[in-house]
Amino acid sequence: MFNGILIEKDQSGYRANLTQISEEQLPQGNVTVDVAYSTLNFKDGLAITGSSPVVRKFPMVPGIDLAGTVEVSTHPDYKAGDKVLLNGWGVGEEHWGGLAQKARLDGDWLIPLPAAFTPAQAMAIGTAGYTAMLCILALERNGVTPDQGEVLVTGANGGVGSFAIALLHKLGYQVVASTGRAAERAYLQQLGAGEIIDRASLSAPGKPLAKERWAAVIDSVGSHTLANACAGTRANGTVAACGLAQGMDFPGSVAPFILRGITLAGINSVTQPKANRILAWNRLATDLDFSLLALISHEIALSEAIEAAPRLLAGQLRGRVVVDVNR
Questions:
Q1: 62 near 55, Cβ under 8 Å?
Q2: How much is the mean pLDDT over the chain?
Q3: How far apart are CA 146 and CA 167, in angstroms?
Q4: Is 186 helix (H, G, I), strand (E, B) or coil?
Q5: How far is CA 206 from the centre of its chain?
Q6: Confidence of residue 100 (pLDDT cuts 50, 70, 90)
Q7: φ, ψ of residue 181 in degrees (nearest 5)
Q8: Which residues form a coiled coil (predicted)?
Q9: Burial of 22 (0-12, 13-18, 19+ CB in 10 A)
Q10: Is the confidence at residue 183, as pLDDT, over 90?
Q11: Which residues pair with 179 in a beta bridge?
């Protein structure tokens, strides 16, 4: 038996409880992992609270990230004792995830834990930092360089936004952070934001084209914010879209694309090929200032995760929430 958060839905309703789970209940998979740390992401908050139908099967263990040690494996790439890492692949939605002391997974979803990271550090980065790195790789592929001008980061106080600012700053970019939380100005400046703007300047309906300002954008918000970010992007700039905190809609115009030649790069962190995942994590090992992890993240116990979920959704938690599943 082991501890885990189990989400159930039946005639009694939708509920998430911390409970004892039997190993016989684990789903199919060719690698069993003793989980050390997981995380609480926005998607996990939705799953735990039931405020959006992200869970596709019941019962479900949430947790889209995990890091731990292989206990048993029949997968050719892994053996008992190997340190591994997982982000995405529908884990925590369609397949039991990381918010439990054990997980049974398809080994093709895993990558080796890079030597640069402890399991706790890897989860402090998690899907958020990994997604931010995928965004930066997309900007680089499209030729965005620090000398071209300012890079806008929306949703700056969230996990993706926090890591995007830190990474861009270390790589030499001028970063403008968009946030609705003025009290976090000092935090964003510590990460490397050179300027902070109110998200209200981007979140309302805007014009098809705005004054050219951004050389590039990393957007985790969507909706009007994404449309306005595109409208204000300079000719031949790139906008990396990776989130939908404001909404899934895109109430924009084709004008920035056909009149200024900007690129809208969609970032799918869930089903990236293994080579891309390893590339992103290797870049994180070299391009991230590890001293910022304590600023960006904080740790909670598994027993605190259910209570923290609605606070995360309400924007009351800064940055990353790391979950020690063994306490």
A1: yes
A2: 96
A3: 12
A4: helix
A5: 27
A6: very high
A7: -115, 85
A8: none
A9: exposed
A10: no
A11: 198
